[in-house]
Structures are given as structure tokens and as C-alpha cells.
Amino acid sequence: MELLKSKILTLPKVYYIQDRDKIKDLPIGVPFIYGDSSMKKHIIRILEYEVLYQQALKSGYPFNFKKILKDNGFKDIIPHRYSKPTYMDYKTSGDLSDDEEWEIDDTKELDLNGTALKRYVRDSEVYVNIQKLKELNVFPVWLNDIEEAIHTNIHNFATFNENMYNKKLEGMYGGLELRSPAKNLIIIDISGSIPKGVSSTCLAMSKNLAEAFYADLLITGTISTLYPYEDIKNLNIDNIYEVNGMGNEQSYFKKLVTSDSRKYNTVIAFGDNHHPGYAWDNDDRYISDKDGQELCQWEAKKLISFHTTSQYEIAGYARWFKPDHTQKVKDWVKYL
């Protein structure tokens, strides 16, 4: 674990971690990037580009970004210096069979004539502005709602403790103390009544969201399993349907939400009308939403519901929560 530094510019404070087990040593909210040793120099380059680009934007004047890079010592941005660039053979999803992988060949030169630009993707001089992509609605519009709801700001969880001992000053002069914020929770119903394309997309997206936004992940199927934030890195979503099954149940879910008390800032639930109160198994009895809310020991300040078929109802496995505020996202399945 180390702070990323540039020989050219002052970079924002971002830690680089090569060992995933070291992530838990960082206070929640401290920015970091995870990768192997070969990626470090490229990450630094991206951050350098970001700093220069933002400074250019703040000027308010038109600018030539390539010239700015060149003036700041980046000499390897001239195209002719790449005599044999790597290219990727592009295929649409319809052309790609299930067992076929992307083929990358770095032994051939990139032909810039004819239809080459339609066949190959290669450009090392383009800066992609993520904020602009959001403004163009390239990303799902409801992703912004999730990001705003569960984004953790480290400054909200830093307090000054007057009684802390200062080693340098050798006295009780106080100091900054970090406290851990409440987690978030993402619930995904993977039962057979939900199209697998929808549930698998939610799984892939939620695994990344959970790691980025300090959230536990609860998968409900034939059994319900809670994956704490600390263990999500080991979750294999490729075999989740075999592990959890594609049915609906009450027993495991009820045991989870009644065995201990948990406090979540935001609960994000993907599902349909199927809910834990229904008597799914022989040993289960019907439980009303009111009784379920009395049983549930988990608390939530906010609920964001992604119901597959209704914009008015709450996703089934979130019906036992009593949040202070509820948001229902509509047309999200159609968007996917």
C-alpha cells in the first residue's frame, strides 16, 4: 500500500493497493485504487492527465489538450512512434460464441486505410470525460440516484477528539479521529420469476457497487445468503445460481433478519412481488408485512426499490424494512 506520486505534477491523494487484504487497513472513505504492479505507472499517467485536464477546464478558455500534454513533458503521444500498436479484433455479441474469447494480436501493424477504423479500436490520445458521459445519459440515469444515496464522504466521519494524546507535542492536545459509518445493503432476488438476464446484470453491477460503496450483499433464492462487505471480493457470481438456487423462501431470510440487529444507511432492493412473508416451504407460515416489520431487527434510513414489474410497489424482500424515506425506480428493466 502506497500513496501514488508523480514526478511531474502534484496528484490528488489516492492510495495504490496490490494486496486486497490490505484494503481493510484503510479507514472507510479513503480513496484507493486496486491493481497489480504492472498497472501502477498507467494509473499514475491517468491521474496526471486528469489533473492537467481539470486545470485546463478551469481556465475557461479553449485549449489543445495534446499540446498541453506535450508541454508538460509527455513526449510519447505522437502517433508515428507506435510502429506496431496492439489492436483488437472487434465482434458484436451476436458474432461471439459462448466459448470464444477476445483475440488480441500485437504482431501486426494497424492498417489505417479503408475500413480499418470500423474493424479495429486503437487510440492512445483520447481523454474520456466520465462526467460528460453521465450528462449524455450514456450510463443508466438511476445509477446517479444510487451513487448519491450511498456515496460515503470521509469528512462526515472525522471528528476532533480533545482528549487524544499527541506524541510529537507530548501532551493531551487532541487530534483527528475517524469513526466508521453505517454500511449499506443491496438485496437481489434471483428467483426463476425474474429474467436471468436482468438478475445476472444486477448481480454483476451490485458486486462492484457493494465494494465501492461499503455495502453488504444479500442474495435471495431457494436460500438467502448474506455476503458481508469484507467477503464480497471472494464472491463468485458465475455459480451463484447453483449455490443459492432460483426459488423463493422464507426460512433463511427470517433467520438472518431476526438473529442480530444491523443498521444500514441505504437498502437497495432488486426483485418482484415475491416476498418472505409467503409460505414458500412446508415449515413456513404466512407472515403479514406488519408482522414481518416487527420481526425484522435490521434498520434502514432509506430504501431504493427496483421492482421488475411495478413502479408503485416495493420489491418483495424489502417489505419488512421501515425506512424513513422510500424511492421507487421505474422503467429500469426496460432500460436494461
SSE diagram, text form:
Blueprint: E1 2-3, E2 15-17, E3 32-34, H1 40-59, H2 65-71, E4 87-88, E5 104-105, H3 116-119, H4 130-135, H5 141-150, E6 158-161, E7 175-178, E8 183-189, H6 196-212, E9 215-220, E10 224-227, H7 240-244, H8 251-259, E11 262-271, H9 289-295, E12 298-307, E13 325-328, H10 332-335
Parallel strand pairs: 2-3, 8-9, 8-11, 11-12, 12-13
Antiparallel strand pairs: 1-2, 4-5, 6-7, 9-10
Short description:
By secondary structure, this protein is α/β, with parallel strands linked by helices. The protein has ten helices and 13 strands. The protein has three domains: 1-78, no CATH class; 83-123, no CATH class; 183-335, Rossmann fold, CATH 3.40.50.
Overview of the structural elements:
- This protein has 336 residues and is an alpha/beta fold.
- The chain folds into three domains: 1-78, no CATH class; 83-123, no CATH class; 183-335, Rossmann fold (3-Layer(aba) Sandwich), CATH 3.40.50.
- 26% of the residues lie in helices and 18% in strands.
- The chain has ten helices and 13 strands.
- It has helices at residues 40-59, 65-71, 116-119, 130-135, 141-150, 196-212, 240-244, 251-259, 289-295, 332-335, and strands at residues 2-3, 15-17, 32-34, 87-88, 104-105, 158-161, 175-178, 183-189, 215-220, 224-227, 262-271, 298-307, 325-328.
- A hairpin with a 3-residue loop joins strand 9 and strand 10 (224-227).
- The longest helix is centred in the first third of the chain and has 20 residues, at 40-59.
- The chain is globular, with a radius of gyration of 25 Å.
